[in-house]
Fold this sequence. Notes:
- It is found in: Cell membrane.
- Helix content is 45%, strand content 9%.
- The strands form two sheets. A three-stranded antiparallel β-sheet has the order 3-5-4. A two-stranded antiparallel sheet has the order 1-2.
- It has one domain (40-175).
- It is mainly alpha-helical.
- α5 (125-132) crosses α6 (136-145).
- It contains seven helices and five strands.
- The radius of gyration is 19 Å and the shape is globular.
Amino acid sequence: xxxxxxxxxxxxxxxxxxxxxxxxxxxxxxxxxxxxxxxxxxxxxxxxxxxxxxxxxxxxxxxxxxxxxxxxxxxxxxxxxxxxxxxxxxxxxxxxxxxxxxxxxxxxxxxxxxxxxxxxxxxxxxxxxxxxxxxxxxxxxxxxxxxxxxxxxxxxxxxxxxxxxxxxxxxxxxxxx
Length: 177
């Protein structure tokens, strides 16, 4: 049974998965010019004002340390972090606290969500346009082109992959030079 379940079955399912879903089985890695820049499935920290910023991460964007913070909504530590993040976002984006989408303040359950809501992306348009010296309509068009529909058209919400969005910005910058 050990050989059958632990070896043959596991090996067979692994090979089948790699054959049917080669991109996903290797981590859904995004490569540009032969260089791996990240995964479609794992969020990363973008700190430059030239880039869209993603959700906060309770795991520090470390895929080996996934997990939420497990802090309740009335926990003082969580409230302090959210208040501090809100203040930073208000200053950086020039908005009021009430205008900040919740996904810009709340980490996902695994702490590694690579997506933000379209509202969170559109909130960042003025800063991106200013930093890249682009028209806001150009930045909005990039966002619109990268909005992913709910899974199978019904599960979840529309979302935007932050890494793919930032790579599209860089590609547009490179092509205009």
